[in-house]
Amino acid sequence: MVDTFFEKAGESFKTLSPEKQKEVMILASIIEKEGKKDSERPIIASVFTNRLAKKILLESCATVIYAFEKKGIQKKRLLYRDLKIKSPFNTYLYPGLPPSPISSFGTVSLHAAMNPAETDYLYFVYKGNGEHIFTKTLKEHMAAYRQYILYQTQRK
To answer: From start to end of the chain, where are the E strands?
Structure first.
């Protein structure tokens, strides 16, 4: 199993230090949970790497959901108050990557974590249809979020 992992990970992964390999695997696990479409995974990776480079909190809903799962609580959707859960996996409260991967991940997410798209994006919002809206500014992000809320209310 380990041999298969390293085979699929590729030569560039093998040359990374153990600490960097761990970081890549943690990021790949977040990308796996956040992304629905393989084509978006490198863009999602770019958002997180851009945020890490600027020392901005990752604010990944997937990490918060995982924090609840570790406590035996299942969450299908998060409320604002959920973002305050005290856990080192809560990237809304704690800077950097969580302490370990939050899920298993596929090779597309792993390769996206190692080779993120080159973008200026700092935010993304799920559109509700398997795709995301990617934005560069908080103002654009909030407009995209309002679009998502409108989509959700129209579905009911």
So the answer is: 123-126, 132-135
pLDDT confidence tier of residue 18, bands split at 50, 70 and 90: very high
The model's pLDDT over 59-117, given as tens digits with 9 standing for 90+, comes to 999 999 999 999 999 998 899 999 999 999 999 999 999 999 999 999 999 999 999 99
C-alpha–C-alpha distance, residues 58 and 34, integer Å: 12
Domains defined along the chain, listed by start: 2-121 (no CATH), 122-156 (3.30.160)
Other CB atoms within a 10 A radius of the CB of residue 85 amount to 20
Position 137 scores a pLDDT of 97
User: Residues with Cβ < 8 Å from 151, sequence gap 6 or more?
Assistant: 127, 128
* Residue 135 to residue 56: CA distance in whole angstroms: 15
Give the length of the chain: 156
Q: How far is CA 25 from the centre of its chain?
A: 12
Which residues, in sequence order, are CB contacts of 134 under 8 Å at separation 6+? 43, 47, 119, 121, 123, 124
